[in-house]
Amino acid sequence: MLKPHPPAPSSGTPWRQLLGAVLLPWLAILAVDKAGAAEPASIYAEAGQNLRSGTSTRAVTLGWRWPMQSSFWDGRITGAWDVYVSQWNADATTGQEQHYAQVGLVPMFRYRFDGGQSPWFVEAGVGLSYLDKTYYTPSGHFSTQWNFSDHLGLGRNFGDQQRHSLGVYVKHVSNAGLRQPNPGETFVQLRYSVGF
């Protein structure tokens, strides 16, 4: 009597697990009490440079934020969807540049100190991004156009009703090792944001 073979694992399973890991924290913040005044929705612009040696890639980004919030520890944590488009300009060969368009969706979590009253904040998030073509430079290339986008930032609000903010962000883009090669690319970007 032949024993049935177990079903082959689905190639999409790791992607579903990582997508769940990205969305579960966001769903948790939706379930908690939304105490206090919400931070405004905002638009932002960023510009920065990659950190990997051997190639120079610059990124310019325009994004939008839709926030939600809750009290947390001695401060306030807010969650927001960051939706963005970005242009990468990379050294392809000597004297030439290659251009890439990136779109992304990242659930971000911002922690504001002093019961939410401090102008200073830190924030982080992991989401998804898509490049219009496979990223390639002489020092390395991606194997996928779909990637994860990890963001970590430190910033400060200022101006009329604290509507403006400046921040420094480190952003890492890679496919989390789901396909090789996976060199990833890490950028440091300066962000200016204005609420509305």
**Can you tell me the CATH class?**
Mainly Beta
When the domains are counted, the total is 1
Mean pLDDT: 80
Structural class: mainly beta
Low-confidence stretches: 1-12, 29-37
Q: Report the biggest beta sheet as strand number plus sense, adding barrel if it closes.
A: 8 strands, antiparallel, barrel
**What gross morphology would you assign?**
elongated
In the CATH scheme, what's the topology name?
Answer: Porin
Please indicate the percent range of residues in DSSP E strands (runs of 2 or more).
over 45%
Strand tally is 10
Structural summary, described in words:
With 196 residues, the protein is mainly β. It has one domain: Porin (Beta Barrel), CATH 2.40.160. 10% of the residues lie in helices and 56% in strands. It is built from 1 helix and 10 strands. The strands form 2 sheets. The chain has an 8-stranded antiparallel barrel with strand order 1-2-3-4-5-8-9-10. The radius of gyration is 19 Å and the shape is elongated.
